[in-house]
Design brief:
Layout: E1 3-8, E2 14-15, E3 30-34, H1 36-42, H2 84-90, E4 95-99, H3 109-122, E5 127-131, H4 135-147, E6 150-156, H5 161-169, E7 173-177, H6 181-195, E8 198-199, H7 208-212, H8 214-222, E9 230-234, H9 239-253, E10 263-269, H10 274-281, H11 307-316, E11 320-324, H12 326-340, H13 346-361, E12 370-374
The structure holds pyridoxal-5'-phosphate (PLP).
Amino acid sequence: MFVTHLECSKTGKTYEPNKLYNLSEAGKPLLVRYDLKRAAQSLTKDSLQGRVSSLWRYREVLPVVHDENIVTLGEGWTPLPHAKRLGALVGMPELYIKDEGANPTGSFKARGQTAAISMAKELGVKKVAIPTAGNAGGAMSAYAAAAGLEAYVFMPRDTPAANRIECQQLGAQVTLIDGLITDCGAEVAKRKETEGWFDVSTLKEPYRIEGKKTMGYELAEQFGWELPDVILYPTGGGTGLVGMWKAFDEMEAMGWIGSQRPRMFSIQATGCAPIVRAYENGWDEAPEFENAHTAASGLRVPRAIGDFIMLDILRRSGGGAIAVTDEEMIADTKVVGAAEGIFCAPEGAACFSALKKMLSSGQVSASERTVLFNTGTGVKYLEAYGLKEAR
Ligand SMILES: *Cc1c(COP(=O)(O)O)cnc(C)c1O
């Protein structure tokens, strides 16, 4: 279609399209580049009227060559309710929630996996493997099942039960690891050669970010081609943050938006806040966060391979990074739920906890149009909300 090449996010070295890749030779994430001038001839704002109600409406800026390889379960094009009652609680008339809990498998990981698994299928992969904090495994299992691929999922033993059961019921082979997602990643890396697995870890293959970037396109389209002032994004590996920023640049290159950008804020848990620590210390990279722990499993990523890209985006956008406690996010799940009828994942509620801090510190002003990302459904986190699990 319109992909011209892939590019190392660190060195800029280019790579041929339509081949299987993990990281670049420099060990950094690869980014997909398009001929946006040509893509913009058929992908116009008007052309979007009447297109499919999934992220595949942005077909020209997605990487699959042949339509028959697209593996879709109806992901993306999620609601963006105007959170008037929640906004009123904090005096913000222009507060919105991008509700990613509405995605297949209950989280925005579906966006990344529809793109990654479609490309894996197109490029002849038969077996896929993933280290996961929870939701990515469920999403990969679902898309692998729909594509007819074998799925191997590695998750920490204390991942929420819903994630484990979901993967198993979707036909994946699940291995529980005594450790964190980074330990799961090491296990996949160790075995993938001999087992013939393709590794679809966050940012270690180039296409999950392409699926996740569509959140940026959707925000622009849903707001009538005007980006919000402030975005709060619960950050683990950072695919969505990096992806949305890429989408903004692509839309500008296609002449859809100007050079104005939202201020981007990474929200993390105090028990695992590598990006917040690096941001506050002025570091360009975020070293591993020791003893990472939080009930918000999507945020339990002690070391992110896209750290340098994220930190650059946070600074260039004039945003920042804020940590909140598990107690705050669990309590705020009920505040958001009771005000808006959205049963959030703790990761989503964390954005509201952070917003209150940002209002009192002056990092955001009450009149600004602000978007909170609810990245998943609370239904998958019953242990965090008090259910004692019987194993
Ligand atoms: C994975 C996940 C996150 C973090 O997303 P990244 O793009 O990896 O930063 C946040 N919330 C939920 C519910 C997740 O599953």
